[in-house]
Amino acid sequence: MLGVLSNRTYRHLFLAQVVALIGTGLATVALGLLAFDLAGENAGAVLGTALAIKMVAYVAVAPVAAAFAERLPRRAMLVSLDIVRAAVALLLPFVTEIWQVYVLIFVLQSASAGFTPTFQATIPDVLPDEREYTRALSLSRLAYDLESLVSPVLAAALLTVISFHNLFAGTVVGFLVSSALVVSVVLPSPKASAPRGIYDRTTRGIRIYLATPRLRGLFAINTAVAAAGALVIVNTVVYVQAVFGLDQSETALALAAFGGGSMLVALVLPRLLDSVSDRAAMLAGASVLAAATFAAAAVPSYGWLLLLWFVIGAGYSMSQTPSGRLLRRSSRAEDRPALFAAQFALSHGCWLVTYALAGWAAAAFGLQATALILAAIAASAVAAAAWLWPAADPEIVEHSHDGLPVSHPHWAEGSVAGRNSHAHAFVIDDLHGTWPHAR
């Protein structure tokens, strides 16, 4: 897997991702302490609102940012957004009012909503070989999982010698180092194939997404992932400390079990995907998520919870990691920023709903009912994914172009399949507005 780091451009981008993630992890810890400093016992409400603001920014801003990403040099855009994020982190230690936290979080997460999809859309152009790109996706998944383990430990160590306000300095450094690493390489910036209006550019990614059968299936899988993931992220502390009567260290261990399952699958997935289709792997992972979430309704002990969270982590990684391959396969290079932004916005829309549901249902009906509700959502989503994403999903598709002049150069693409039809790698674009034989 590590062989992909021999590509200098990707190596620098991967390191930029790692240092930015660590900086973000330090900010997450510091933000919790800042909320308590400002709001005391109401810190949970402050953090909950900040999380909701984050998700709203992700859903609303990503498609708009993608519309501009199509017109701007990628390197300049990524560096500018890193600098914006560093500036916000620099201001956070000086806030004195809760509303100021909300404003800065919105700006910070809006910058992230522009940065992350653009960054993700760049990797397929840097690594055009699918095997190498698959390994890059697994490395990215490992980076996210390691950050969730390393950042809290690093923050705890730093807090023994500095105040929590200084943790934000680590975030600033992370974003600045990230921007320096991006500056150090030349990034491909595909040009748009034709001038487009702002509405067309803003909605283009979502229109391509919803017109592609495999991506409609991906949206359903995103729903299953969010349903199971929300149970873990929102309610682990309730399971561990309220149900089993344990303390914070056991809560951290339970979350580490979830991360451990995800990391293990991320390590073995590239080899697995050499022989198993994306559809089979992702549906299997989502099915595991649904079954394990259902089992969480009757988890008998803390030991079983650790095992169950490990299994959910494994299903989470198997369901999530290959998604970049689907997006790459379903778009032309110039449309990738818009399509990755659509995935970013739609998947976080799922999280926005399931986060709220996991917290509200647990308070109103208890953990058992919450697990059953989320399991039902996940199972329904798996069934929808299997229906929406056809088992026969070839990359090269025969299709016709009624009304396209025979002199049009597009007819030279692919191979002639019959009268008024040809076959080539099919994606939704200006010449292909609907999927052939779409159901």
Descriptive account of the structure:
Pfam families: MFS_1. One of its GO terms (molecular function) is transmembrane transporter activity. One of its GO terms (cellular component) is plasma membrane. It is found in: Cell membrane. It is a multi-pass membrane protein. The chain has helices at 8-39, 43-69, 74-91, 98-126, 130-159, 167-183, 198-211, 213-243, 248-273, 278-295, 302-320, 323-329, 336-365, 367-388, and strands at 396-400, 415-418, 421-425. It folds into three domains: 1-189, MFS general substrate transporter like domains (Growth Hormone, Chain: A, Up-down Bundle); 205-393, Growth Hormone, Chain: A; 395-439, no CATH class. The longest helix has 32 residues, at 8-39. With 439 residues, it is mainly alpha-helical. Helices cover 73% and strands 3% of the residues. A hairpin with a 2-residue loop joins β2 and β3 (421-425). Strands 1-3-2 form a three-stranded antiparallel beta sheet, with no helix packed on it. It contains 14 helices and three strands. The protein is globular and about 70 Å long.
